[in-house]
């Protein structure tokens, strides 16, 4: 009886040890146990990203729900997750991941870098615009609905929409500091700038984007009361003058006295003495105040003055 009891006791101890093993609380493991993230988990497996979010490191993951994925698939003409190209799916998922543990209370309005890459740059990862003015809004398309799901290797924020790879238009519309620029680009007598800057024809684009204050100063300079006082050819040529086609020109690519040929056809000059700036065709100077907002089809640099070509 004693000989029989010994192995039974050992077996019992072994079972207890197994039951007392600590639960895996990595980001990937928490997502796998959450019923609202089943499609996300399937997507991570398909894109071979489970190991990344199950391992060491520190990540902030903005995690779309099943409903968010279902809507994304329908909106983009996919019947199922299997219809999404793996390479595209991988970058979309990485576009939801930011390095470091960023609790909702630590988020602020502005740009952060995700781990995703678009086609425009091999080195500069995609930018995400976070707006915390009311709810936490990401790229103007997705809202954090359940924040601060803590994991051993970071934090999960549940979101209500998949954050697609951002285009130049995505970032222009997401940031309220560009609302006047968006109004100008979408004026009904202008070319289809939204279609152009959302697409890949002539891309990648480098856009020097004036702020609302820059447009306000321009109206004062021109003695105009609103954009409606600016005629169609002047506005079209001015907007095209802020775009460089066929190049994702990062701030590190800029050189002093560099001549830049624009989508409009005329040039402007980059100056780096005393800070990066642009001297336009009318010898007016604009400061480059923020750089390298990376989009999937180009990059945006923010300027504090509207630049002007010469007009015949």
Describe the fold and architecture:
The chain is of the alpha+beta class. It has two domains: 24-159, FAS1 domain; 168-303, FAS1 domain (Roll), CATH 2.30.180.10. The chain is built from eleven helices and 14 strands. It has helices spanning 2-19, 27-33, 38-46, 50-54, 66-75, 86-94, 168-174, 179-185, 193-198, 212-221, 232-240, and strands at residues 59-64, 97-99, 110-113, 127-131, 137-138, 142-151, 154-159, 205-210, 243-245, 258-261, 267-271, 277-279, 285-295, 298-303. The strands form two sheets. The chain has a seven-stranded mixed β-sheet. A seven-stranded mixed β-sheet has the order 9-8-14-13-12-11-10. It starts with a helix and ends in a 9-residue tail after the last strand.
Topology:
Elements: H1 2-19, H2 27-33, H3 38-46, H4 50-54, E1 59-64, H5 66-75, H6 86-94, E2 97-99, E3 110-113, E4 127-131, E5 137-138, E6 142-151, E7 154-159, H7 168-174, H8 179-185, H9 193-198, E8 205-210, H10 212-221, H11 232-240, E9 243-245, E10 258-261, E11 267-271, E12 277-279, E13 285-295, E14 298-303
Parallel strand pairs: 1-7, 8-14
Antiparallel strand pairs: 1-2, 3-4, 4-5, 5-6, 6-7, 8-9, 10-11, 11-12, 12-13, 13-14
Helix pairs in contact: 2-3
């Amino acid at each position: 009886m004693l000989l029989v009891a010994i192995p039974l006791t050992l077996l019992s101890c072994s079972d207890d040890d197994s039951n007392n093993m600590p639960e895996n609380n990595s980001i990937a493991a928490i997502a796998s146990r959450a019923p609202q993230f089943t499609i996300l988990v399937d997507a991570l497996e398909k894109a071979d990203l489970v190991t990344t979010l199950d391992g060491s490191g520190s990540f902030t993951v903005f995690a779309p729900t099943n409903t968010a994925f279902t809507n994304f698939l329908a909106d983009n003409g996919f019947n199922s997750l299997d219809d999404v190209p793996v390479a595209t799916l991988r970058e979309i998922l990485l576009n939801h991941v930011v390095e470091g543990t960023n609790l909702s209370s630590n988020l602020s309005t502005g740009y952060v870098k995700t781990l995703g890459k678009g086609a425009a740059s091999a080195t500069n990862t995609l930018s995400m615009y976070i707006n915390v003015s009311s709810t936490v809004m990401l790229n103007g398309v997705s809202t954090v609905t359940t924040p601060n799901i803590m994991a051993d290797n970071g934090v999960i924020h549940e979101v209500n929409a998949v954050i697609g790879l951002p285009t130049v238009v995505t970032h222009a519309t997401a940031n309220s500091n560009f609302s006047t620029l968006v109004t100008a680009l979408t004026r009904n007598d202008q070319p289809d700038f939204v279609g152009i800057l959302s697409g890949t024809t002539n891309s990648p684009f480098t856009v020097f984007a004036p702020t609302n204050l820059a447009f306000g100063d321009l109206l004062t300079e021109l003695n105009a009361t609103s954009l409606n006082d600016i005629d169609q050819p002047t506005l079209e040529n001015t907007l095209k003058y802020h775009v460089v086609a066929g190049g994702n020109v990062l701030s590190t690519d800029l050189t002093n006295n560099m001549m830049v040929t624009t989508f409009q056809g005329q040039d402007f000059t980059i100056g780096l003495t005393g800070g990066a700036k642009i001297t336009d065709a009318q010898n007016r100077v604009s400061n480059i105040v923020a750089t390298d907002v990376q989009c999937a089809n180009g990059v945006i640099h923010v300027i504090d003055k509207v630049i002007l070509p010469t007009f015949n």
